[in-house]
Amino acid sequence: MSDVDERRRTISLVPLFAGLPEQTITRIAAVATSFDVPPGHVLIEADMPGSGMFVIVDGAVEVHTRARTVEIGAGEAIG
Predict the structure, then answer these.
(1) pTM
(2) 38 contacts 53 by C-beta, under 8 angstroms
């Protein structure tokens, strides 16, 4: 399976993208980038300009706000 095929499969499972035409999902997958993130790495900081959207494929990330901490897991998106 190619990288684009793998990304297309992953993106199609994210609820935010449910119902999008296959052609649209393929276009998103073609410009998406896959990468690993080491534990403790900060992807997003409050009040900073966004750099993109992150789909969690494996594992989980913690989102810390002033009020609480939420865990986001595989198949979910942030950003």
Answers:
(1) 0.80
(2) no
What is the distance between the alpha carbons of residues 69 and 62, in angstroms, rounded to a whole number?
Answer: 7
Region of 63 (left: φ > 0; alpha: ψ -120 to 50; beta: rest) is beta
Residue-wise pLDDT for 20-33, tens only, equals: 999 999 999 999 99
53-69 confidence digits (pLDDT tens):
999 999 999 998 889 99
What CA–CA distance (Å, rounded) separates 52 from 35?
13
What is the C-alpha to C-alpha distance for residues 79 and 77, in angstroms, rounded to an integer? 7
| Tokens representing residue 10 in the block | 């992953």
